[in-house]
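Researcher: We are triaging several targets before committing to wet-lab work. For this one, the compound of interest is pantothenoic acid. I'm pasting the protein sequence and the ligand SMILES. What I need is the predicted three-dimensional arrangement of the protein with the ligand bound, expressed as structure tokens, so it can go straight into our comparison scripts without reformatting.
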Amino acid sequence: MENYSPYMTFAKEEWAKLRFNTPMTLTESEIQELQGVNEELSMDEVSNIYLPLTRLINLYITGSQQLHSITDTFFGKNTNKVPFIIGVAGSVAVGKSTTARIIKALLSRWPNHPKVEIITTDGYLYPNATLEKKGLMNRKGFPESYNTRALVDCLIKLKSGAKEVKVPVYSHLYYDIIPNYYETIEQPDIVIVEGINVLQTPRPAKGNLPSVFVSDFFDLSIYVDASENDLLRWYVNRFKKLRSTAFANPKSYFNRYANLSDEEAVKTATSIWNNINSVNLERNIEPTKNRADIILRKEEDHVITTIKLRKI
Ligand SMILES: Nc1ncnc2c1ncn2[C@@H]1O[C@H](COP(=O)(O)OP(=O)(O)OP(=O)(O)O)[C@@H](O)[C@H]1O
Ligand SMILES: CC(C)(CO)[C@@H](O)C(=O)NCCC(=O)O
């Protein structure tokens, strides 16, 4: 019997052919900008995977802008310009922020939507003081550790064409929200909302069905996927690197880890992974994968090997 799936699946070689005649060359300064995003990022990966991906996203955005102008014609007046919103989901350490930054750099090149902003849902974690009170310090990243209402309010403002929206900021150095500090977003053309929780649908409290989800505001959603073996290896490698960078800063919450030996670092990172991030992945993140419009499957070295695209 034929197997039905809501997705079309492309191997990376087939996907690379979907560039067609879009200029796929990058200027020297664009290459430099992308290398600044992540020094390990391969430029072949950018040309073969991310350029076709952003070509597709650009077509979607053009379609949405045309729909907007049709609505203006219908009303006989100009309505507020609202941003196209893209959600990027996936496990801790899968590369969501890197993916968001690559997409931002590439989408900014198109003349019809040069202003792209990124919102990280880390900023909507409750401050440590609140998490401690609620007994959630070992549940950072779980649905209950976020102020999802505040995130939804931010998305409502953006989709209402607000002139400016203030976004709270999380510091990985302090492992906490920065008190009384906000970044201001002013009428962008595109917003990329990146975080492990962006495709989650909260469990309703009895008799009180939630009316809006974060993903209701997305025009497009992407899930970055990888096997847990790869994720754990990337998490441990990042942890080992952080010993000589962020952890070495005396102000770092994890300064006590700066002098761990390789063996101790692997043990500590693996234990954090197993006790927190792996449980969260299995219970709360992975189950949201099939809600995404696009699934990017990565294998070793962050190479994207398969692209799944939801049939319209
Ligand atoms: N496309 C890529 N090519 C090479 N290395 C990558 C790529 N994407 C991510 N990495 C590496 O993988 C690790 C995790 O990436 P990143 O910080 O982007 O993940 P994340 O999903 O945003 O993580 P978190 O949820 O913990 O904030 C980093 O060490 C990063 O350098
Ligand atoms: C901030 C989150 C939740 C998500 O980015 C994550 O990076 C995190 O801190 N998880 C908690 C366990 C850990 O320290 O890895």
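Researcher: Any quick observations?
Model: The chain has one domain: 7-310.
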